[in-house]
Write the structure tokens for this entry.
Amino acid sequence: MAFQTRHRDPLFDSDTQAIIERRGKELVGLTMIGLAFLVALMLGSYSPDDPNWLNATDAPASNILGPVGAAIASPLYVIAGYGSWAIAAIFGVWGLRFLFHYGEERAMSRLIFAPIGVALIAIYASTHLPGANWVHSFGLGGLFGDTVLGAILGVLPVNPGAGLKVMALVLFGGAIAMSAFVLGFSRDELWAYTRYLVGGIILLYATAMTALGRGAVGGLRMAADARTRAAERRATTEAPAVVDQSDVSPAVLRATRAYREGT
């Protein structure tokens, strides 16, 4: 015997459900932006002397997030080096996308490739020489970047110096392309941003040339005015002095005439 069940109306109508879903995405975006900020603070205040899994010490942690931040930042730097900063970028960009509802539907299909993007950035960082402030025994890409880069250079049929330059160029392009993909950029977005960038460069160039042109015209006018004033001063200097008789007493004028007539 079949039982008939009564159809129940949904708890919220379609408009309310859409609003709740929209607010939920915005909440996810704010959370991801907050995580990006925390990761950036944690990595920015990283110190190898802080107490962590690899350094047992009783000294207080200098990390802004305290011992927890030091314990997380240390393995990230050891494994991926500067590539770990890509984690903050991923959280930040996707947080903005969820907050402003711009391409957030591509999140799941793109974020699964985030580890590959972080790995490529770490390997590319290993192609650069560390600076004087880098105190670790591994390179800028961490142990992972150094290991993978060393393996690649070992199988290339060229000397390591030339191979390093080639790999730096290839990895740079690959890291840029994978980062754009992981961060959710589409072809239309990249084309639009490229047009804005090129248009901005052209506008800045035109503004600079206009300013230079106005400056040149102003300089020529100033030079012409200076020449005119100099010519007027020379003409005034060479002209005979004219005595304004209105400022001379009549007695002096008569004496002057008498002296001139007598001579």
In short: The chain has two domains: 22-185, 187-228. Residues 187-238 form the longest helix (52 residues). Residues 22-185 form one domain.
